[in-house]
Amino acid sequence: xxxxxKRFRATFxxxxxxxxxxxxxxxxxxxxxxxxxxxHSFAELIxxxxxALRTDGxxxxxxxxxxxxPEAPSLVLGSHLDSVPHGGRFDGALGxxxxxxxxxxxxDSGKRLSTNIEVIDFTDEEGTWVSLLGSRAVSGQILARDxxxxxxxxxxxEEALARAGLTKAGILGASRVDEAFRAYLELHIEQGERLExxxxxIGVVSGMVGIFMYLVTFRGTASHAGTTPVKRRRDAAQGxxxxxxxxxxxxxxxxxxxxxxxxNMTFAPGLYNVVAHSATCFLELRSSEGARAxxxxxxxxxxxxxxxxxxxxxxxxxxxxAVEPRKMDFGIQHTFRTAAESLGLTTxxxxxxxxxxxxxxxxxxxxxxxxxxxxxxxxxSAREYTSWNSCVNGCQVLLETACRLLVSS
Amino acid sequence: xxxxxKRFRATFxxxxxxxxxxxxxxxxxxxxxxxxxxxHSFAELIxxxxxALRTDGxxxxxxxxxxxxPEAPSLVLGSHLDSVPHGGRFDGALGxxxxxxxxxxxxDSGKRLSTNIEVIDFTDEEGTWVSLLGSRAVSGQILARDxxxxxxxxxxxEEALARAGLTKAGILGASRVDEAFRAYLELHIEQGERLExxxxxIGVVSGMVGIFMYLVTFRGTASHAGTTPVKRRRDAAQGxxxxxxxxxxxxxxxxxxxxxxxxNMTFAPGLYNVVAHSATCFLELRSSEGARAxxxxxxxxxxxxxxxxxxxxxxxxxxxxAVEPRKMDFGIQHTFRTAAESLGLTTxxxxxxxxxxxxxxxxxxxxxxxxxxxxxxxxxSAREYTSWNSCVNGCQVLLETACRLLVSS
Lengths: 409, 409
What we know:
The structure is a homodimer. Chain A is 37% helix and 24% strand. Chain A is α/β, with parallel strands linked by helices. In chain A, strands 1, 2, 3, 4, 5, 6, 13, 14 and 15 form a nine-stranded mixed β-sheet that branches. In chain A, strands 9-11-7-12 form a four-stranded antiparallel β-sheet, with helices on one face.
């Protein structure tokens, strides 16, 4: 079975029209006006094509193709229409467009289905307010306290909820853990350059990396930046700087399978004329194996202590929060590979270094995630680009995989 | 002539009673209630001892001993009663107490004076609102725009002015550039440890260091901290960190006569999961020689370019503002030295690495500044300490120097 390329293109264009930036990217943070406009465009597509539309308390928006059996489980395909501020066109929107094309292709095939097919657009995958909000709500992983400390300011979150006609109670009530799901499939851009640099068509995701966050605070003595000789200072800035360089070196030399980032530092008192008594690094590390993450954490903890001692400082290496690594279903990984091979496409099995809604859907049913190449590895910017040929390849693999799962149901 | 040690001690205690912290320091930022209470205590001392009291539009508070000649110039001695937040007891208050003891000693000596003697407490030496506000106002170096962008928030400055009964117009009108001054003398704690570590009693200040401020901004590319391999990043945090370490190394190795400080860094976007595209270092450097400061600036500029190149970044080395170095009067330096030697005290000539009101008074008349040792070099904290014996030595040198200047008048 083949997808309809022209129709797929038209769907993709329709779903990436709202919130377009002059640079050619998308600026539609979750529940912003541009994001709600994109959802409206998707709802129109659903209605025009005669599918049932469903929304839930978390704002997730679905197109449904029901089979004859009212007790049948659902095969769910999806991704997200929100973007990071000034993000790209392919991150999320490609997955929703491809899932919708699969739905259209399955309907038009006249196949007798023994499962329902649902195409879902999840709310706030990018975490403008709460990371992976929609899929966490669906998989019963969201608590009231998660909604009380959103990433943006709480007032902005309340306003955004009101704009979208949502409530916190609705989000907390959106869990679907009692439903029967056949599987969840998602197509996404890689957002890295492993596929492109190895000349691979399709990435089969083995699992999502675990994400571990820390606050690493170096403490010295505030002193007068004029009268205190440099060699007599206990300068927290020096410890934090040495540590940030060490983080990079340790990952490059000993943990090439992991990544780490010092994305921010805050200094106190933070003045020109006072030696900083405190410098805090925001540290994040990612690994597809929990054990490796713990090894890296140990190595970085040692490096922090070493950097502190070198400048007469103390250091506090504080664990903040973690998203544990999660495996994708082995059977679906295999089906993705054989489906791609049947289409003459090359595959590579690789971990995802970013979080995706698939990791939450994996708690409800077998879940699989496939990648298509990102040119130059760029993502979360207007430079994000995937060739249309790659998009078609990905959509075709998604359809073929869905067909194989439906046959085996 | 000898000072009255007991009386000097009583004056010092009276001037360091207000704003005392539990740790034994002083917390009286300029124009705070505690600072105004200290000024009130000083005004009482002036009145009780029968001196004329004078205040000006900048809030500077003076005790006057007038000589017979209404056209006579003034010998001014002073320092400041304000402190940094949670500062120490000796910074400023010692200088006012010593100046007042010199005034009392000169009056009690029955000497016939041919100059007026003024003891002045300058407003906001520490720059809670505007650095060296009082002495800049007196020496005609303050502009309306300096008052429109105070260091604290503008509303707080307005409130503080109202609390002290001051106005911006009054500050701008406090210039005394048309008056005749014989000289200005100030005693201060060193706030460093050069005197203590060399076992010297009295520091004779050759001049104030110049202070040069820069914003050094490293720019790379924001990218996903999960999907972007570490070796492919253009991480601004790495450039800024490498630069901060270089600043220290360059000063230690090649500019031991200078100091430099990276007191703050700000990152953008400053998130755990995004590689920073921008990192800005707040850089300050100080040197007693303008030429040396320019050499150090050149060396640090090169280091910034090197740090940027190393991580594929660009860098902008932006000059912000400068306080030029200022020499203390050679004659007064000599008088300080001979006065100290006549008292059996050892001296050392050294630049001041911090700013002082004497640098502004130097624009009006010959100005001199003497230091007494700071135990351990601590300052701007409750740990600030100078032995009472050192305080007495400093006050005695101040009196002896004043006497020698009066004789030579």
